[in-house]
Every structure is written in structure tokens, then in C-alpha cells.
Design brief:
The complex is a heterotetramer, with 2 copies of chain A (328 residues) and 2 copies of chain B (328 residues). With 328 residues, chain A is α/β, with parallel strands linked by helices. Chain A has 10 helices and 7 strands. In chain A, a hairpin with a 2-residue loop joins strand 4 (177-178) and strand 5 (181-182). Chain B has helices at 6-20, 44-48, 60-72, 91-104, 134-138, 151-163, 210-225, 243-253, 268-279, 302-308, 312-327, and strands at residues 3-5, 24-28, 53-55, 76-83, 114-119, 144-146, 168-173, 180-182, 196-199, 204-208, 230-234, 237-239, 256-263, 289-293. The chains are: A alpha/beta (328), B alpha/beta (328). One thiamine diphosphate (TPP) sits between chains C (66-67, 115-117, 144-148, 175, 177-179, 244) and D (29, 58, 60, 82, 86, 89).
Chain lengths: 328, 328, 328, 328
């Protein structure tokens, strides 16, 4: 039912928990005044980012969204430099110029969160085009939401990617809401995956709260892209546990709906499966312990990082030279 | 007299115009049940119902286009594109369609819609949620552009915008939403093209609008202590622009300072400077000075953002330099 | 097999022939230097415009494309004022300000040709919204091509129209090419109609060279829209006989392909059907005669119409008042 | 020395850069087999093949986005958006993504693509195919903007644009494509920010670019007969702008005239005027005069179009008025 060895499974558990706690602590840190900007927590959707990224290798690239911390962590980004960026400090991934909405990790091929809904989709298509043109075996993955699937960028990008058989995997995280608007009030369909047929592209649906289910379909889609067979639209049905952004109370969502999804918390789902597979609670506790340590260090690192000097605002408008992203 | 916020003033104008004319309706993302990301449309959905306050999908081109199309048939839509940065996704509908309809059709059709553009930074809102793009629309013949700085002007100009037979770009600054001021119970529409001298002075005419107007006023207070007298002129509508008002002020001062948050290069301040340097040349006693946003995108870190945006200190410093220069 | 009486059929024949000859003569008139601008001839696609417009009534509205003469004539526009506009004269539909790409007829609800591929689609959705909101029984029709179906505007508009069950009929004239690019080089699908499923909307396909086939499906789609059941995507498979614009030799198209379609000329198809139904050749000749007379008069009218005065360039930028298009 | 056309010069630059660097490739609608709507890319598809010259669907946002995405990975795409009016459909990719990438990422990523924007009227091209939109891009920090007026500058600047590590907007005027001039066999890239005095003079500095530069030169000939000596300055690149070159010329003349085809209000001429009136004030001996497009959309009729666009007569008349005023 899964081709992943036990150690990998506990790694996935670790990664999901890291995202969960990174976001929970970020919310607290924002409350405490350490983070000046807005936050769109990924809490509840961890299985999607982790399941997809587990199917990727070095040389693959990703584009993300306003809700990008989970994607970035799942790709293996450094929580220290992420908190440093959220804190608006020099050692942040974007040297305090980007913040949550624009974070990148060039070595990991993480082309960035994006402040524009749907904005990352054409960029992923372009990255895939460059990978194809240079004969790389790399694949581009683009994460976006159900709401983004109503943007023109989605349509134009999927048409182009399928036409040119580009190595892209389009991952639609359908969490049933675009901002405060329920899906049935923003589109007349339930399964975004059916839109794949408009582009003669396979469209598949995964239980977005089951990391293994996501991983399985992601592997197929990535393999297909690598083989030069073109893109896939992968829809993951999931849910965000918190508001659209920190501060949003999410009153527009029925309590029963929230409760139902909380009961299917992706971390609980994997956790109980692991326990079922004979992983001891002590081992899970050790993972949780490790996660807290990582985040303690990350927060300390961010706190210790210097603030930028005001004049730095004038730097980085134009480039000296550019050879392209140096993938690790 | 009662005091209300800028956001409440806009809300009242929308409500009163909707009461007055059933052809007026609202379109936008999350403006209905959610009351808008900035709360401007709070309560209007409950009061006027779903046929007057329409929540749209995240489809900027279609939602603005729907407003334009409805306006051709005589509807009076008020379209919110939320952060004006997202207007980049609706430029065809605004610029190629709405702005040119009346002209292209030899005067036979018009597109009387109002487009609400939420402008400027709100603190760490970063590069894609902070832009001040008014200069683009000012440069687009067929559009009218208004940029109120106070609750009263916001209410009076919104009423005029909705009743105007042409497409109007209505710029609202995020940092103004919660600012309060006295607004009478009954407010009449304010005809476009009427600037106002917000503060009288004798040494320098300082032209400013939106949030920067208040920084300019604060600078004027400071400068007064030093014996430098700033006359502060708020054009209120950028297109049409109150040339007579500017001329009258320059007749008193002979010196021109222009301050706005948008990047200096190609900003609306350049047009004001060009008007003065060509049409009011004989009134000028010294170089025109612009105090504007730096020619950079908006950075995330508060220290950097503070450097980019012209504040009272920078405005005051510039004014001082004008006087010393004048003396020398 | 068709519910149209004999007289109606000969009328359709007349309308198709009028479009054919209007375009052929426009090409000659352009050659002869009477028409300053570009022309995108509708020749070969006449059955689509005529079949669709035959299903419409007063109070219905239309948006068109760069290839709009056929749609406009099919709707009943005055060839005299059309030629006058192409000639850039005062009596033209747009008073010489628009030309071929922007022609309108407000009384016929013809909201205009459009210079922007896909630009008319959101406008039709907006017009439909206004018709729905005002309780009119009117329907909006939007014509566009296979190439336009790759624009974001197409996607966003169909999603919105279906979501709100707007009275629109989307007519995709699939003539196998977008400009000089064959369909298989611009989209990975053959039937644009399948894209309807992405919006939970019916998608139907008609032989675009059979006016009766087009008319039948158009009637169903219009009836559905009028009944408040929402939009339909109607794809008409057709072909343009000439180049993309006058002057384009169309070398990118295989001669056999062209020959095959010429053999299925929609006017021949209907003509032979009429003859089969017992209409005499003399009657068809009389129709041809009438068409030539109409166009003789139209060209004479245009020729006699005054040129605009240069200063008129400054008029029509802004409106005095606007009550909305006065439908006949 | 051989003479070649502006279009041929751009074609040569593209070809030579593609020879030099295999990372350079072309993207656009109908630029491949068809050689481009304006013939600029004629023969490049045959010479470099489909992997270097890519025909795209009619999807402006995705095709520009694909260029941006490819450039992030080190590709050097040259994207043609055909008529610059269609850039309205790609503004998010140009403005929110490409222009801000380097800054938002703290200098870690760049988007070195070249965007070809076909600008201006070509005679009866009407409102949606004639715009001169350079002012929008000049106002967008992170973009560089070049606007060559001669074949030699076009070739030299295109080479520099392609090698530039940042996004460059390359404005080409339709009426220049067929203009011919001497161009040496070997042309080196021309660094941005170097304007040039195209004609020396003593009375007035006339700043102009693209097609209007040639109208200005014609006006200078006329005026010479009357004893008025125009110095004609072509900035060639608008961003960066050659302030030193302008200053040097104003030191000779003391009077400034600015002419461009774009509408006057908020055009690039306003920025030039503002620079002079603030930074070069002491050199100015009289009012700055702008001779620009009227503040109207572009009309269809030749008589009207001629009134809208600044020609040699209008430029000469303005220059005369400056001298008389100066004398008075
Ligand atoms: C072009 C654009 N329009 C609107 C917004 C405001 N906005 C930010 S997130 C969001 C909702 C996106 O919904 P979805 O794509 O489902 O992603 P989710 O938030 O559910 O993860 C909206 C409307 C934006 N950032 N960009
Ligand atoms: C937004 C936009 N992009 C490109 C063009 C240039 N252009 C004009 S017509 C055309 C082809 C349109 O193809 P299709 O939609 O199939 O209509 P057809 O010409 O076949 O009738 C193109 C690319 C345009 N006018 N607008
Ligand atoms: Mg969502
Ligand atoms: Mg076509």
C-alpha cells in the first residue's frame, strides 16, 4: 500500500510536525511582536506539501503561494533562515526584503512563495520549459489553491504546458475556500481535477490529508513528467485548520465542518498508522522533541540576526550579472 | 459634528448611492458576506442582499470585465480589485475596454463604472501588496482618477464617482481606513477637479494626496516652528487636475514641492512638475522639488520600508533645503 | 429537420450572401484606397453568424471580435453606416473614431467588435449580468475564435457565467487557425466544446458551414439562457476562405485543406438545399441582385459622407451623461 | 556602408545573440513559421529551429510568464507581446513578477528576459493597436526601458538588452520597421543610459525618441531656415536615463522642448520635465514645452490620428513660440 520504508515514514511524520509547529510558533511570535508581516498558516495541509516533495529530487524546482511555509519546509528549507526572514532580519532567505509572501531558496530550486494568487503557475511552466530546453531531467511543481484555479493564469498555463509536454506537476490544494468564500460560491464544480480534460492532461484526486496517498499520486505525476510525457493536474482535497491568515477567526465556516476535518488531521492520520505499524509512542515523542529543538534554535537564530540598515533599501533593484539559479 | 473613519465614509457613500439608485451595485472578492478584506463593505451584504453586493471568484479580469459590461447597459457597478497590485490582472478591461469605450464608439457608449483600488503600504505589506499605481491610470485617456485623503472627501468623491458617466479609478490608501474626522450627516457629491488648500502658507506650495498629505501636514507643523511657512494643496482628483488651484497657490508662494508615496520616476508628481514648469513658469522662483517613494519595489522590513516611503522628516528636510537654496 | 419556413430560409441565404459580398467588396474598396485600416474578412464563416443571430430577438445583446462584420450584418446592421465607418467618415457607426475593430450598433445591442482577442467575452458576461439583474428576458451572445479559447479571459468568464447562471451563449467559431497558427500548435485539444465541462456547462458542436445546424443549436442555447438555466458553449466548426487579414496570402494552409472547405462553402450548402426544396435559380439570382444594390448604395453613401474635422479628435473622451445603451 | 531596415537590424541582433549564446531563445505569437506579424523574426525559425523560436498560443500572461520562469533558471528569452497594447494582459508577470524578482529575493534571483513591445500607430490602427505605453514601465522599478529610433541603435541596444541581467522592455515603433540606415557589419552592444545628440544646435534642446525623433529632426530642418537652431537629443534608453547628456545640452541651449507620441498627461516627457525643473533648474531660461500625443485614445480616421500625433509642424510651431516668448 506504500513503497516507503519505515524510516522514510517517520521522516515524513517529522516533516509534517515541523511544519505544524513552525506555523503555530510563528503565529505566537507574531502575536509577541517579532514578526511584522502577515502570515497565512499552512496548518492542516501538511500532508500535501510533504507527500509531494517526498516525490522530488535534486534539480527539481517549485513555485508556491501566499501559503508557502509548508511547501518550503517540506522541500528541506532551513527554518532558521525562514524565521529570520519573517523577523525581517539580514540572515533571512530574502535578506529582509521579501517576507512570508516572497520567500525563496535558490539552492533547493524553491522559486518562491507568491503574493499573487495564481502567479506562480506561469513561472513554473517557464521553469519547466527551461528544464526541457536544457535537457535536464528536472521537473517543476506548482502549488496553488482551489481559488487560484479560477484565474486566467491557471488556464493559459495548463494549456501551454500540455501543448509542449512540459515537465510540470500542477498541484491544486483544494481546501474548500478561497479566502472567505466557499468553493460552491466561487466555482460551479467540486473537483478541480476535471479541468485537466480541457488540456488533454490527466487529472487525479488524492486524499490531501493522507500523506501516503498524496505521495503515491505525486510519484506517478513526477515520473510521467520526467519521462517527457507531459504535465499532470493533481488535486489534493484538504482543509486549513485556522483562518485564512493569522487574525482571521474563520467565522464563515460551519463548526461541524471544521470539527470533521480536525478529526482527520493529517498528522494524526499518519501518527496512528505509524503506531499501527509498530512505531513506539516514545519514538514519536522523540521526533516532537527534535522538532521543538529545531524551532528553538531557529527562533534564537532569527532573534540574533541583525536588522538591515535603512540604506539597504536602495540595493538589489538591478543585478550585476546573472547566470541563473545555482541548484544545489 | 460626529466623526467617522475613512472606511466608514466610503461605506456610507456606497450605501446612500445604493439607496438612491438601484442600478448601483457592488462587485468584488469577499466584499459580501465577509464585508471586504478591509471591512469597507461591512454590513452592506446584509442590508442590500446578494443581488446588490456580489462576491466574485478570484478572477480579476472577469470581475472587472463584468463591471464594464454591466455599465455599458446602464448599470452603475462599483468594482473592488482589493489590493491595487491585482489590477495588473485587469488592465485590458480597464485600459483597452472601459477607458476607450466612449471614444472608440464616437460617443455612443459609455462605461460608467467605479473601480476601487486599494493603494499604498500598510506596514510590511511588501512588494506585491503595497503599490501606488495611480500614475498608470492618470496616463490613460478616458479614465478619471480621484485620491481622497480624508473621510469627508472620500464620501463626497465616492458619490461623485458613482454618479459620473465615465469610468473612475478611486484610490484608497490602506493607512487611511482607520483615520477619523468630522463628517456631516448630509454630504453632497464633490465635483471632480476641485483641489483644496488644506493649510495656508506663504513660502512653499506643497502638493500631496492620500496618506502622504498627512505627512506633509505634519512636516508643515514642524517647519512652522522654524519660521518656514508651507501651503499644503491637495488636488483630491488627479484627473481632472485643478490647475487653477495650483496656480493660485504658486502665486502666493513661488515655490513648489511635490510629495507622494509612489516611486518618483514617472510618478504623478512628474506631471505636476511638468505642468508648473511649462504653464506656471513665470511664478516659479526656484527649482521644483519632489519628495516621493524611492525608485525601488516596496521592501518587507520596516526599516527599509520607512526609508522608501517619504515621511514628514524627509518632506521637512526638502522644504528646508528649498528655503536655504532660495536665500543663497 | 428544420423548423424554419421557406421565406426565412431565403432570408438566411440573403444575409449570408450580403456578408460574403460586403467583405469581398470591402477588400476591393481597400485595394482601391477607400478604406485606410485593416480588414479581417468573415468570408467562409457566414453560416455561424447568420445561424446564431436568427435565434435572437430584440433586447438581446452581442459582443464580437476583430472579425466582426459578419456578426454585425447578421444582426441587421446598416451596411451604409458600416462602409461609412470603414471609410472613416462622419456617418460611420462610430463617427470615424473606431473603424473595423470597434464597430458598434447600440440600437441592435451590438456592443462592438473588439481589437483584443477574447476581450469581448467578459463584456458579454457583464452585459448578461445586467440583463439578469434588471429582470430583462434578454440574452447575451459572445462570438470568439478557437485561438481566443486559450486566453485567461475565456476561462474566467465561463466560470463566472456558469456560477451565476447568467443568460449568455458563448459561440466559439473554430476555424482551425489562430492567426497563422494551426489549432494543433496552439492547443492540445480538437473540440473546444469539451472545455465547457470545466464549468459544469453544456458544450455542443455544430457544423459551422450548415446554417440550419448552427441555428438549431443556437435556438436551444438561447432558450436555455432565457429560461434562466445558464450559459452554453456552442462550438461551430468552420473555416475562413481568405487570409487572416486582407493581404495575408495564407501560405501556411495546405491547398488540399482549403479546397476541401471551399467545396463545403456554407452559401453553396444552403443554396443547393434551397434549390432542392424547389426554390428557383431565378429567385436566388434576384437575391444576389438585391445584395449588389444594397452594397452599391452603401458604398455610395460612404463615399458621400463627410470626413471628420481634425479637431473632432478631442471630442468623445468623456461623457456628458449616460443612461445606458438605448435598445431599439 | 550597407544600409538595412530597423526590422532587419533587430533580426540581426536576435540572430547574432542566438549564435553567441544558446541560452537565448524567442517566444511569441506567430513569430516562428510566420516570421512575426511585422516580419521581424523572418527566417529565424528556419535557421534556428522550433526549439529556439517558439510559437505560442494566444495567452499573453502565460507566454510572458513562461519567459520570466525560464529566465529565473538562466534562460535568456526574448518575448514578443506583438502590439504593446496586449501587454495589458501580462502586466502581473512583467510588473509584479519580473520587475520585482531581484529585489524581493534580496538579490538572489534575477529575471533576465527581454520583452519586445511594438509601439505607436501605423496609420488607422485605432485605439487598441496604437498605444505608446512606455511611461507605465518607466514607472515600474526593476525594469529597464529602451526605445531606439534608428537601425543601428536598435541592433546595438537589442544586443545589450539580451545580455542584460535584468528584465528589459524594448520598445519598437511600427513606423520605423521599414526605415533604413547605414549599419556596419559588426555592431557592439550599446550600454544603456547613453543618450546622443543627433543634431547639434544652440537655441533649444529638443528631447525625443522613437518615431517622433524623426519628426523632431524634420522640424529642426524647417526651423534652421528661420534661423532657429534646435539641438536634438535622443535618450535612447529611458531607464536608465542619461541625465549628464541632457544637462550638457541644456548648458548649451537653456531651453527644453520634449516631444513624444504617447499622450502628454503622465507621459515620459513629464519625467524629463521634472528632472530638468528640479535638477537643472539653473540652466533653464524659459518654460519647458511638451509636444506630445493629445490626452485621447487613438482615433481611426487619418485626419483625427494626424491631429493626435505630434508631427514636425506642431513641433516647429512650439519651438517658434519658445523663441518669441524668450525674446519678449
Ligand atoms: C491576484 C490576486 N487576487 C486576490 C488576492 C487576495 N487573496 C490572497 S489569498 C486569496 C485566496 C486564495 O484562495 P486559494 O487559491 O484557494 O488558496 P488558499 O488561500 O485557500 O490556500 C486571495 C483572494 C491575491 N493575493 N492575488
Ligand atoms: C490579446 C490579443 N492578442 C493577440 C492579438 C493579435 N491577433 C489578432 S486576431 C488573432 C488570432 C485570433 O484567432 P481566433 O481567436 O481563432 O480568431 P480568428 O482570427 O481565427 O477568427 C491574433 C493573435 C490580439 N488582437 N489580441
Ligand atoms: Mg483554497
Ligand atoms: Mg480561429
Amino acid at each position: 500500500m506504500t513503497d516507503l520504508p519505515r524510516e522514510r515514514l517517520t521522516e515524513l511524520y517529522h516533516d509534517m510536525l515541523l511544519i505544524r509547529r513552525f506555523e503555530e510558533r510563528a503565529a505566537e511570535l507574531r502575536q509577541a511582536g517579532y514578526i511584522p508581516g502577515f502570515l497565512h498558516p499552512y496548518i492542516g495541509q501538511e500532508a500535501v506539501a510533504v507527500g509531494v516533495c517526498a516525490a522530488l529530487g535534486a534539480g527539481d524546482v517549485l513555485t508556491s503561494t501566499h501559503r508557502g511555509h509548508g511547501h518550503m519546509l517540506a522541500r528541506g528549507a532551513d527554518p532558521r533562515r525562514m524565521y529570520a526572514e519573517l523577523y525581517a532580519r539580514r540572515d533571512g532567505y530574502n535578506r529582509a526584503k521579501g517576507g512570508s509572501l516572497h520567500m525563496i531558496d535558490t539552492e533547493l530550486g524553491f522559486l518562491g512563495a507568491n503574493g499573487i494568487v495564481g502567479g506562480g503557475i506561469p513561472l513554473a511552466v517557464g521553469a519547466a520549459l527551461q528544464l526541457q530546453r536544457t535537457g535536464s531531467s528536472g521537473v517543476a511543481v506548482s502549488f496553488f489553491g482551489d481559488g487560484a484555479s479560477n484565474e486566467g493564469a491557471f488556464h493559459e498555463s495548463l494549456n501551454l504546458a500540455s501543448l509542449w509536454k512540459l515537465p510540470v506537476v500542477f498541484v491544486c490544494e483544494n481546501n474548500l475556500y478561497g479566502e472567505f468564500t466557499r468553493q460552491d460560491l466561487h466555482q460551479p464544480i467540486r473537483d478541480v481535477a476535471i479541468r485537466a480534460s480541457s488540456y488533454a492532461m490527466p487529472g487525479v484526486i488524492a486524499d490531501g490529508n493522507d500523506v501516503l496517498a498524496v505521495h503515491r499520486l505525486a510519484q506517478e505525476a513526477v515520473a510521467r513528467a520526467r519521462a517527457g510525457e507531459g504535465p499532470t493536474l493533481l488535486e489534493a482535497k484538504t482543509y486549513r485548520h485556522r483562518g485564512h491568515y493569522e487574525g482571521d477567526m474563520g467565522r464563515y465556516r460551519p463548526p461541524e465542518e471544521v470539527a470533521e476535518w480536525l478529526a482527520r488531521d493529517p498528522i494524526l492520520v499518519l501518527g496512528s498508522r505509524l503506531v499501527g505499524d509498530g512505531v513506539g509512542q516514545d519514538e514519536l515523542d522523540a521526533i516532537a522533541e527534535r522538532v521543538e529543538q529545531t524551532l528553538d534554535e531557529a527562533a534564537a537564530f532569527a532573534e540574533a540576526s541583525p536588522h538591515p540598515e535603512p540604506e539597504e533599501a536602495l540595493e538589489d533593484v538591478y543585478s550585476e550579472t546573472y547566470e541563473g539559479m545555482a541548484l544545489r | 459634528m460626529r466623526t467617522i473613519s475613512y472606511a466608514a465614509a466610503i461605506r456610507e457613500a456606497l450605501a446612500e448611492e445604493m439607496e438612491r439608485d438601484e442600478l448601483v451595485f457592488l462587485l468584488g472578492e469577499d466584499i459580501g458576506q465577509a464585508g471586504g478584506v478591509f471591512g469597507v463593505t461591512q454590513g452592506l451584504y446584509e442590508r442590500f442582499g446578494p443581488t446588490r453586493v456580489l462576491d466574485t471568484p478570484i478572477s480579476e479580469e472577469a470581475l472587472v470585465g463584468a463591471g464594464v459590461g454591466a455599465s455599458l447597459l446602464g448599470g452603475r457597478p462599483v468594482v473592488e480589485v482589493m489590493f491595487s497590485d491585482f489590477a495588473t490582472l485587469a488592465m485590458d478591461m480597464i485600459v483597452n475596454q472601459a477607458a476607450k469605450t466612449h471614444y472608440m464608439t464616437g460617443g455612443r457608449l459609455s462605461a460608467p463604472l467605479t473601480i476601487r483600488l486599494v493603494t499604498g503600504t500598510a506596514g510590511a505589506t511588501s512588494a506585491q501588496h503595497s503599490q501606488s499605481l495611480e500614475a498608470w491610470f492618470v496616463h490613460t485617456p478616458g479614465l478619471k482618477c480621484v485620491a481622497p485623503a480624508t473621510p469627508l472627501d472620500a464620501k463626497a468623491l465616492m458619490k461623485a464617482a458613482i454618479r459620473d458617466p465615465d469610468p473612475v479609478c478611486f484610490f484608497e490608501h490602506k493607512l487611511l481606513y482607520n483615520t477619523k474626522a468630522a463628517v456631516p450627516e448630509v454630504v453632497e457629491p464633490l465635483p471632480f477637479g476641485q483641489g483644496c488648500v488644506v493649510r495656508e502658507g506663504t513660502d512653499i506650495t506643497a502638493v500631496s494626496y492620500l496618506n502622504t498629505l498627512h505627512e506633509t501636514l505634519a512636516a508643515a507643523d514642524e517647519l512652522e516652528q522654524e519660521g518656514i511657512s508651507l501651503e499644503v494643496f491637495d488636488p483630491r482628483s488627479l484627473v481632472p487636475f485643478d490647475r487653477a488651484g495650483l496656480r493660485a497657490s504658486l502665486e502666493r508662494t513661488g515655490r513648489l514641492l511635490i510629495a507622494h508615496e509612489a516611486p518618483q520616476r514617472g510618478g504623478f508628481g512628474a506631471e505636476i512638475a511638468a505642468i508648473a514648469a511649462s504653464e506656471m513658469w513665470e511664478l516659479l522662483r526656484g527649482p521644483i522639488v519632489r519628495v516621493c517613494g524611492t525608485n525601488t519595489p516596496m521592501p518587507y522590513a520596516p526599516e527599509l520600508e520607512g526609508f522608501v516611503i517619504p515621511d514628514r522628516a524627509r518632506i521637512a528636510a526638502a522644504a528646508r533645503s528649498m528655503i536655504t537654496a532660495g536665500v543663497a
